[in-house]
Amino acid sequence: MKHCVELSSICKSFNKIKVINDISLEIPEGKIIGFIGPNGSGKSTLINIICGLISIDGGSGSCMGFDISLEQAKIKSSIGYMTQNFTLWESLTVIENLKFIGTIRGVSDVDNKVELLMIRLGLDRFKNTLARHLSGGWKQKLSLACAIVHSPKMLFLDEPTASVDPLSRKEFWNLIYELSAQGMTILIVTHAIDEIEKCDRLFYMNKGDLLFAGSLSQLLQSHSLTTILVKGESFDEFFTEMLRVKKIQIVHRDKWLSVTGYLNIEELKIKYPDLVIEIITTPLESVLYNLSCH
Ligand SMILES: Nc1ncnc2c1ncn2[C@@H]1O[C@H](COP(=O)(O)OP(=O)(O)OP(=O)(O)O)[C@@H](O)[C@H]1O
């Protein structure tokens, strides 16, 4: 499998505070990659490093085959970048925004390419509308169009759906799948559980460390957390005991209880023989919560 990003022992500090701590990783080509982790864990900083936007203090790396410390201009011309702020020229129309960015990006036959892109993303019906008059969802699509007008091989999306409605999010993800099917590598920063579940590969960061790299199923299996559903006669007694146990998550719903933690099921079965204890897949939220406690 070819890699479009390779990082080796990357370190970065701001004002003597370590923000990226000895991170090495490889990103396979053509996949949808999720960068996840709590606020302030270093996701955006690492992405900016990969894109050649900020310098590193130690380590080495490449993006699209170009050195992140020496060939920043080449990296910038071969990638697309979209942030949650949808950086658009508000007083230009949709078509003017696209042609402007396309021209800056050195796109040949820009008029034709912009027309095709607008049709592909459904933006053609708003081509003469000022960007500031677009709804949040359409601003997001225009921002995506601007990020891919030069047909990059890799696209970076930093929380692109944080401020749009569920339907726009769904449509946005259909476009992501379409771009991915055409061979584009997509790296997305997100906090949304449903979006994390859509990624082919995940990188979980916490306090500047890379704590996990792998698929969703590997992430779910990587923690020996257990989730059980419990119901039965001694339910109240069991519930009271669970409330006293530290580091477990409890969801109480009328006649049943869901408990996630490092549980000794055999012991519980002996202590509460009448309870029906069903082991279910640990929810992703629980695994992420557990990782963030490291
Ligand atoms: N230019 C900067 N100067 C000083 N500190 C910075 C700078 N950029 C980021 N930081 C600090 O680096 C740490 C990591 O920030 P970063 O934005 O990379 O995290 P993040 O995981 O992307 O967070 P979020 O999910 O909130 O966007 C934070 O403590 C942040 O305050």
Largest sheet, if any? Answer: 6 strands, mixed
CA radius of gyration is: 23 Å
The neighbouring-strand order within the major sheet is: 6-7-8-3-9-10
Assembly of the depicted chains: single chain
The helix content, as a percent range, equals: 25-40%
Domain ABC transporter: 5-232
InterPro entries: AAA+_ATPase (IPR003593), ABC_transporter-like_ATP-bd (IPR003439), ABC_transporter-like_CS (IPR017871), P-loop_NTPase (IPR027417)
Family: Belongs to the ABC transporter superfamily. Drug exporter-2 (TC 3.A.1.117) family.
GO molecular function, one term: ATP binding
What does this structure look like?
It contains 11 helices and 14 strands. The protein has 294 residues and is of the alpha/beta class. It folds into 2 domains: 218 residues, Rossmann fold (3-Layer(aba) Sandwich); 70 residues, Alpha-Beta Plaits. It has a 6-stranded mixed sheet with strand order 6-7-8-3-9-10, with helices on both faces. The protein has a 4-stranded antiparallel sheet with strand order 2-1-4-5, covered by helices on one side. Strand 1 and strand 2 form a beta hairpin. The longest helix has 16 residues. The model has no long low-confidence stretch (mean pLDDT 91). Bound molecules: adenosine-5'-triphosphate. The site of adenosine-5'-triphosphate (ATP) has 11 residues, from helix 1. Belongs to the ABC transporter superfamily. Drug exporter-2 (TC 3.A.1.117) family. One of its GO terms (molecular function) is ATP binding. It holds the Pfam family ABC_tran. InterPro entries: AAA+_ATPase (IPR003593), ABC_transporter-like_ATP-bd (IPR003439), ABC_transporter-like_CS (IPR017871), P-loop_NTPase (IPR027417).
